[in-house]
C-alpha cells in the first residue's frame, strides 16, 4: 500500500466552510493512525477567499497531530484560486 510505504506526506486540500474538506478526513480516517504515525507532513491549502485556506491549515495541523503525523511548521497557502491565470493550460 502506497500510504503505508511513504516516508512523508504532502496533504493538499481546499478550505470548505473554514475547515478541512470532509472527503479528506474520511479517507485519512479509513486508513487509521498507524499509517501516518511518526512521518513528517507538509500542508498545502487553497481557497476562493483572501486567506488561502489558513483556517483549514490550522485545523489540519491539529488533525495530523492526532493521527501521529509530524506536520512541518511552514505551509503553502494559495488565495483566490479561482482567478484566471492562477494556473496555466496544463493546470500547473
Describe this structure in words.
Helices cover 34% and strands 28% of the residues. It is an alpha/beta fold. It has a 4-stranded mixed beta sheet with strand order 2-1-3-4. Strand 1 and strand 2 form a beta hairpin. It is globular, with a radius of gyration of 14 Å. The two termini are 27 Å apart.
Contiguous runs where pLDDT drops below 50 for at least 5 residues: none
Class based on secondary structure composition and strand pairing:
alpha/beta
Q: Quick one: how many beta strands? A: 4
Beta content: 25-35%
Estimate the mean pLDDT confidence: 91
Distance between the termini: 27 Å
User: Number of DSSP helices?
Assistant: 4
From the alpha-carbon coordinates, what is the Rg to the nearest angstrom?
A: 14 Å
As laid out across the biggest beta sheet, the strand order is 2-1-3-4
Shape: globular
What percent of residues adopt helix (DSSP H or I)? Answer: 25-40%
Q: Give helix and strand order, one letter per element, not per position.
A: HEEHHEHE
Main beta-sheet annotation: 4 strands, mixed
Task: List its salient traits.
92 residues; alpha/beta; 4-stranded mixed β-sheet; 4 helices; 4 strands; globular
Which helices and strands, and how do they pair?
Layout: H1 2-5, E1 9-16, E2 19-20, H2 22-31, H3 33-36, E3 40-46, H4 54-66, E4 70-78
Parallel strand pairs: 1-3, 3-4
Antiparallel strand pairs: 1-2
Task: Summarize this entry quickly.
The chain is α/β, with parallel strands linked by helices and 92 residues long.
Amino acid at each position: 500500500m502506497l500510504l503505508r510505504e511513504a516516508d512523508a506526506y504532502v496533504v493538499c486540500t481546499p478550505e470548505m466552510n473554514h475547515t478541512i474538506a470532509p472527503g479528506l478526513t474520511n479517507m485519512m480516517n479509513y486508513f487509521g493512525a498507524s499509517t501516518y504515525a511518526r512521518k513528517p507532513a507538509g500542508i498545502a491549502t487553497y481557497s476562493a477567499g483572501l486567506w488561502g485556506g489558513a483556517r483549514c491549515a490550522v485545523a489540519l495541523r491539529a488533525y495530523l497531530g492526532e493521527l501521529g503525523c509530524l506536520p512541518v511548521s511552514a505551509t503553502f497557502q494559495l488565495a483566490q484560486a479561482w482567478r484566471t491565470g492562477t494556473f496555466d493550460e496544463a493546470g500547473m
